[in-house]
Amino acid sequence: MTVLGLWRWSLGSISVASVITPQAEAFYWAAITFSQTLGTALGDWIADDTGLGYDGGALVFAFGLAVLAVLYFSTTISRVFLFWTAFILTRPLGATVGDFLDKPVSEGGLALSRPIASAVIAVFIIGCLLLLPQRAGQHPGRSEVAS
Question: Which is deepest, 95, 142, 143, 145, by most CB within 10 Å?
Answer without folding.
Answer: 95
